[in-house]
Amino acid sequence: MNVSAQSRPRFRHFLLQSCLLSFSLLGWLLFKPTGWRRYLQDISPNLPPDFALSDLQTIHWQSTHLWQLLLAGHVIWAIWVSLITISMVSLFTNTTDALFLSGAYAYFFTLIGGLIGSLSVSVIFGITIGIIGGIALSLTVGLYNETVFSMAENIAIVVMLNVSEESIQIPQGTLQAWMTILLAVFTASLAASIMQNITITPYRHSQQRQIGSVVIGVIISSGAIYFIIQFISTLAQGAAKLLENGGVFSFVYDSLISLMFGIAIFLIWILQTLRIGQGLLLGFLVSTLLILSTLPLNQFEDQNSLSLIIKGVHDGIENGLLYTLLFAFPYALAKRIANPWAGLVAGIFSSAGMYIAFVVILKTQSLELTLRFLLLAFLIGISFPAWISLLIYPFVSAWNLILYRLEELRAPDAPSLLPLHSAFWDERQRLPLYGLESYLVMLAERKPAETEQAIYALSQTPQKWAAQEAQIELDARRLEQCQTVAAISKAHKHLAAGELSSPVSALLRSLSRISRDTEAALLQESTYNQRLALDAVEERLDGLLRELTRSTEPYALRFRPIAEQWRQQLSDYGRALGEAVESRQEISNPYIIGIPLTEHQEIFVGRGDVSEQIERLLLDNRCPPLLLYGQRRTGKTSLLNNLGRLLPSTIIPLFVDLQGPASLAKNYEGFLYNISRAMLSSAKRHREIQLPALNREILRDDPFTYFDEWLDTIEQSLESQQTILLTLDEFSALEHVFAKNLLDEASVLGMFRHIIQHRPRFKLLLSGSHTIDEFERWASYLINVRIVHLSYLQASEALKLIEQPVQGFALRYEYNASQRVMEVTRCHPALIQLLCAEIVTLKNRQHIHERRLATLENVDAAIPSALQHGRFFFADIENNQVSHIGAEILHRLAECGEGAILTTEELAKPYTLEVFTPALQNLLQRELLEPLGKGYRFQVEMVRRWFCG
């Protein structure tokens, strides 16, 4: 008793959920395919949207969600269709006979036709054919109070039977039969259209194969139907001669018709699943069901309500089977050969052909008129997504406007009405839903998180224009709210520039870059570098303002005041920085730690000997590829950034950072496109030259060929004396790309080799902290590489960096102080900047009277903080550049004190020569140790102090 009492509420809850699901199903099929696909995830994550019941495995049938779907889509919707039919028929007639007949017919047509469609075609098709066909075809039954094409009386006779025309029982209204045929074609086409639109599985068969499968499906299925009917008709004629009793003959005849349906079900199941035993069982069950529905028909001589209900049950089952099987047989055949879409077309054509045969034999209308209207019915059904959107557009527009007005009147903390907007339940609507962008902007002020989710959801739908417009306006409002330079520096974190396919995307990217540059400027530790970086940002904003003034784009007017506001804020902030420095008489700190110097930074000094060597080598037409080799942080990238002002104007340096986007590409298309972008940017920056752009789209088919053709166009655009210097910084980054198998080593390096050998106007300059010897297998591609060694600064260059890094530098050095800086850094450019930056910081903390002169004591006092501040530089040496044995050697030598020298034997203790020798060679190659006399010492005192600490 307790179990039963507990199960009843659960069953009622299950039944209530199924009733609600039935309405959701109709909405999903007609308007929201994603709802259907999401529900299928509860049954099985791998279940395709167009699955049929014949596709299911045992595990699927264990899902409660599947049974709920079948209950809602077939049983409950059969009830709704029956009630809808009765209601609509009652509007036109008061005859209870018509209500009984049409109600019973509608229920069983929807139930049986839908189930057979779900079994043989797809559940989408079955539910749609059951609902739409059940309503459309049942109305003709109710309006005429007569079943059209009752199989037991007409169909087998109509289609190619050798029976006299007088024996054909034509329905009371031939127009009724004709209209029913048109509705059948319309229903099948509409169901096929809905099924195809919900399906997202790509079909890869060729167009010829799909067309061929349609033709084969129509021909074979028509022939099979013909032979089945001929077989049944032969048996029927034999039975008519043997049986004199009309009632007995009628039962035998109905049984033969039931057998025909069973055979058809059996053949379809074999085509779908290749499971013969299940096909025989299913065919037997269908035949038995139809025979059982036939038995009561002969028990009533007079027509009454009960007899009409029984007739409606029988004819509903029979015609549900008829209309579905006429479609399913050619569908299954064409699908087996090609794909479901070919099956849908074959099913429509084949069933339409059978209906045309009915019309010809029944002589209800002329063949020409029938063909025209059948084509019209087909086109209306197959184009359902287009015309339904157009039909309901005025109504959903009015509905959306009402929602918008109601939302304006609601309290800000009240639940939003946005989910009721048609954009979220009508995914097929491709016409723009005007006002949606304003709705999103209004809601963003109240519920930003919910609006962000809504914008993301809409960006995947035909209404993405509204999401884009709303996002642009929200971005504009956020940018307007940046009232301080700090706020400007954080603005890029909220911009959607990369997500928009609009002319405003480029504008938002510019503002995003300006915001990032502002953030980088504020991260500069010295006021001088902040002001320098902010000056560059102001220049970019000035350029953007000029572009916005000239622009005719609709967004220029919206964003120009924002750019002007930013420009004013940056200008005021820079002026305030300058005034603060002046008032405190601080020494501006121009030194830049940890990032390469650009061509715009005055602090870059020297390297004239290296640039002269590069220039001399480039003048030789036979110049091999160059390798700019030097240890980390010796200024390789800074030199490459400044080659434009160090080399003659006839040499065009094109800088490509291989640690940037190029090495992050997932394929050749992205790799070559990112290289081209860097080349274009560098030509513009160094020489104000606009090289021809490379279209990314053309790289997809044959990337290397099109990239090579693009290089041809670059050469053609050059003047006669101009030479391209393609500089590839951090070329060793390619090693990681090759190791991940993202790019093929032979293809990429082979391309560079081809450039070296066949393009004399292209010179190749590689840069890195690894020599080609460390990548031996690359040697066959980069033949005869000429190494350009970049080491420490010359003494005069180092002294200039210390005492006069920029014009008007306020700090003076005693002779011993500047010599001490050169001594402990070994004129290493990064270490000079690191130590001198700490000296400036130290001096700014002193009294004004002591601030402007750096002494030897100041230098020594700044070294510990420089070591701490530059710990990542030194830790990289210990952790990434030397082996464990090498680090132990450095620690032991460092403990011996400044300038200490240890012999080979002293350093080698307690290691074997096999272990010690490669470790020592690595330390020498890394320029950490240097030989002196019979021993070795640290090259750089500051490096020694790190390993000593």
UniProtKB/TrEMBL annotation:
InterPro entries: AAA_22 (IPR049945), P-loop_NTPase (IPR027417). The keyword Membrane applies. The chain crosses the membrane at residues 14-31, 69-92, 98-116, 177-199, 211-232, 252-272, 279-297, 341-361, 373-396. One of its GO terms (molecular function) is ATP hydrolysis activity. It comes from the Bacteria. Residues 624-773 form the ORC1/DEAH AAA+ ATPase domain. SUPFAM superfamilies: P-loop containing nucleoside triphosphate hydrolases. Coiled coil: none annotated. Keywords: Membrane, Transmembrane, Transmembrane helix. PANTHER family: ATPASE DOMAIN-CONTAINING PROTEIN, DNA-BINDING PROTEIN-RELATED. This is ATPase. It comes from Beggiatoa alba B18LD.
